[in-house]
Design brief:
By secondary structure, this protein is an alpha/beta fold. About 40% of the residues lie in helices and about 20% in strands. It has eleven helices and ten strands. The strands form two sheets. Strands 2-1-8-9-10 form a five-stranded parallel beta sheet, sandwiched between helices. A five-stranded mixed beta sheet has the order 3-7-6-4-5. The longest helix has 18 residues. The protein is elongated and about 55 Å long. The two termini are about 20 Å apart.
Length: about 260
């Protein structure tokens, strides 16, 4: 396999979500480094909450973390519910765990696109469970309530910034001539910036940065990133890898 000239990629996605991306990048000949900027802690799903989910006819998952953190509690309560995933990465996680996905937004993988799915206009009075982390800012439940459905938001996990001592240990193993950094959500981007500032690592702001939405790209500029900002169409490992490959191939062609 031809080795890429620009081959050092820093992945900042949380564990274990980053594993698939790391593996995929390595298969394509890239050297990967890991700095998971967020730590995910599963929340206890009470028996009452499990019963609520079982009685729902629709389950919506707003992240792959939400899937992983509640799957073991829900697997015995799956009873042909309609399954909706916010994006390809979340859908892939569900399918890996044996839960088929019925609906996925075609683009703009966010809660607003979920609310616009035809499913919610052609079906009435749905009983819906929405699975997300405690820091989710989605107002999907209120939007679907206004459409005549009944929603229950179920918190599956909390997300915290990586401990600085752990971040320091990891960052000491990362060369400062990284060719690109990946960031996977607004929260992830904020924590990356905070970590870089606390550890006095200004080189991070001068590396090409790959993000997964236009909003993130705009925020990255506001936060002071100086190098090219790449935008992946979605947060899936396949899309991120393809975006990086296209950019790197272009650079190598005109280098």
């Amino acid at each position: 396999m031809k080795q890429a000239k620009y081959k050092r990629i820093l992945v900042t996605q949380s564990n274990p979500n980053q594993n698939h991306l790391l593996t995929l990048l390595q298969r394509h000949g890239y050297t990967t480094y890991s700095l998971p900027c967020t730590q995910v802690t599963p929340k206890k799903i009470s028996s009452f909450t499990q019963k609520t989910a079982q009685e729902a006819d629709t389950w919506i998952f707003l992240s792959a973390n939400a899937v992983r953190c509640c799957h073991q509690h829900l697997r015995n309560h799956y009873d042909d519910q309609t399954i909706i995933a916010i994006g390809p990465a979340t859908a892939r996680t569900l399918e890996e765990l044996g839960t088929p996905v019925d609906y996925l937004p075609e683009d703009n993988f966010n809660s607003e696109s979920i609310a616009k799915l035809n499913y919610f206009s052609t079906h009435t009075n749905r009983k819906i469970s929405i699975f997300s982390g405690n820091q989710s800012t989605s107002n999907l439940n209120s939007t679907l309530n206004r459409l005549g459905h009944t929603c229950k938001k179920i918190i599956t996990h909390s997300t915290q910034i990586i401990e600085i001592t752990k971040a320091m240990t990891l960052i000491e193993q990362i060369p400062t001539d990284i060719d690109a950094i990946t960031s996977h959500s607004l929260m992830n981007l904020k924590h990356l910036c905070s970590t870089a500032q606390q550890l006095k690592q200004p080189w991070i702001f001068h590396c090409p940065l790959l993000v997964v939405s236009k909003k993130m790209a705009d925020c990255a500029l506001e936060y002071g990133f100086k190098s090219p900002i790449l935008e992946s169409p979605d947060a899936s490992a396949e899309s991120i890898t393809s975006t990086l490959q296209n950019w790197i191939n272009h650079k190598e062609t005109y280098a």
